[in-house]
From TrEMBL:
Keywords, comma-separated and alphabetical: Signal, Transport
Hydrolase recorded as keyword: no
Signal sequence segment: none
GO CC terms, sorted: outer membrane-bounded periplasmic space
Record's keyword annotation contains Transport: yes
GO biological process, one term: transmembrane transport
Source organism phylogeny: Bacteria, Pseudomonadati, Pseudomonadota, Alphaproteobacteria, Hyphomicrobiales
InterPro entries: DctP_fam, TAT_signal, TRAP_DctP, TRAP_DctP_sf
Name the UniProt record assigns to this protein: TRAP transporter substrate-binding protein
Naturally occurring in which organism (per UniProt): Rhizobium quercicola
Family annotation (PANTHER family): PTHR33376, SIALIC ACID-BINDING PERIPLASMIC PROTEIN SIAP
UniProt similarity note: Belongs to the bacterial solute-binding protein 7 family.
Amino acid sequence: MNITRRTFGTLATGAAAGLVAAPGILRAAPKIKLRYGTAFPPTHPGVTRIVEASKTIAARSEGAIDLQVYPGSQLGGESDMFAQVRGGALDLMSTSSVNQTIVPFAAINAVAFAFPTYDHVWKAMDGDLGDFVRKAFFEAGLFVFPKMLDNGYRNITTGSKPIVTPADLAGMKIRVPGNQLWVTLFQTLGAAPTPLNFGELYAALQTHIVDGQENPLALIQSSKLYEVQKHVSMTGHIWDGHHIFCNNRRWSAVPAEAQTIILEELSTAAVNERADIKALNEQAKIDIEAAGLTFHTVDKAPFRDVLAKAGFYTGWKEKFGAEAWGLLEKDVGTL
């Protein structure tokens, strides 16, 4: 199917805009059972809002649609679940860290220090840049829902010294997702990045396989990483979000009436999850400090200067391509 980015921007929501769900029709058809996998822990809003949506989907369809949610990497690590969705063995999953494997520029939202505020994030990811990425996944066989889940701005935690300057990262073994952009970022800053699935992280910190990690505050709290760390450095180096994926063939086999309900409810869940993350991050800082961790304010400018001088931005502009990079800079300014 040959579609433009502008066409794709309306493709995902077209059914919702043009159809009225007909539960009677759905009820007469075989029950639609869908499995949704995620690495987010059960208490994370990226799970609780999807579970809430699954209940609303069931109610709106009068039981015709059964969306089952499996949090905490129950169905495998993110790379495993992503492969399962690509192959059709799993219906839906959310992730950010492994999707670059089939769409190289899909990780463009994770360019270090690119998004100064959430206004910049959502202008880009709900707009032309997001549509550009979603269209590329569609052409690679994956339907991507129009609203991303917020995973938050990522900050560095450590078990020994805090990270307040680029020099503090020298030689540090830091866990990163299995994504080359993360690896390159921390290599450029002088660290020793160690890719690990999120489900392995707590044990790796506990046994000192890695010295530190980087994640949003809400995830640090919900995964209890504060139990095995001592410092939080507020680097905010990457904004991270999760796309919700479905195999194209599986999605096209879902009746249009059911697509309408699922699209609307998962989009609502994503928007609500964003508000949850904002509130949770504010409370997480209080709770994590109460658990004994020390927070450190970080001047981001020296980190960005190191990256710029080392050619990090020019290198990734070349890898992502001029069109994707131009859409990013349209919303965030020149990098």
